[in-house]
């Protein structure tokens, strides 16, 4: 898996993580089968086709999680599949009753295609750290630290939650749990499965708009109350905010593809801070944005980051919190979400 010119598949290729991952894979010499929901969406198609080497090394496919069989063609002939796409809203036209059912069904269909393909050696799922809450099942507070052994209890009821956050958290938890059931037995034909449970992803983007997670990450300086709500939810769910740069997320995906022997679950974040600590960083580095005093006041949190699994495998994070902040601010200035 180490040299270029191998064929790989990326689902959700036109999203924030998907587009940066496709660009990096093309730069590294891979041939990429990229899926998006609608090949008639000219802006998404043009963006992907504008990447260096896309003219010869990028093949686009249409596939929707609500019709899971559609991924088969894109997977055919690939040696690795990055399953990045996730359903964020239930679809009226769907055979599934909610996003969790759709996400789990897509995992089954994609994993079965991979094992039948004879070519796929590794399936890498872009999971979320929201599936790894260190909250205790009995609601009596947080475990000592957050690491790969933590799984979010499905019946959680949190003060800062809403229907969207709850559905997303349950869907990511069930989907990750489902995909980890593959890749361990003989019937899976030697395919291994990796899940990368990413923290809040910040940094700049190839997209023309500020991605949702970047908008949340900088919500203390944009004063966007809607985006800030997801920060408060993440903090309540996880004890503090796990944060990671988009470049490190993409490099971690590629690292896990190229590593000859690796499988299982990995948490991905290079910083773990409270919302109040993050607000303090904005006040220090970007005083011109006037962070509101109440944002600086929250609890500093005593949750600890306990995950070292990927680093022990040899992965190195290249971006610290300051770099993630700087690149996220640059992104929002470029897209016009920050005026100065
Ligand atoms: N950003 C973060 O902070 C973060 C953190 C942890 C985990 N993740 C995970 O990373 C993945 C990508 O997230 P992102 O931040 O890049 O979000 P994003 O920009 O909103 O991208 C979501 C992608 O999912 C695709 N998608 C949505 N509904 C779909 C459906 N029914 N069928 C097929 N594809 C569908 C979209 O495809 P179209 O473009 O074709 O509509 C889009 O490419 C997700 O699995 C997310 O859970 C993200």
From TrEMBL:
One of its GO terms (molecular function) is oxidoreductase activity, acting on the CH-OH group of donors, NAD or NADP as acceptor. Keywords: NADP, Oxidoreductase. Pfam families: Epimerase (PF01370). InterPro entries: Epimerase_deHydtase, NAD(P)-bd_dom_sf, NAD(P)_dehydrat-like. Residues 8-261 form the NAD-dependent epimerase/dehydratase domain. This is NAD-dependent epimerase/dehydratase domain-containing protein. It comes from Gossypium raimondii.
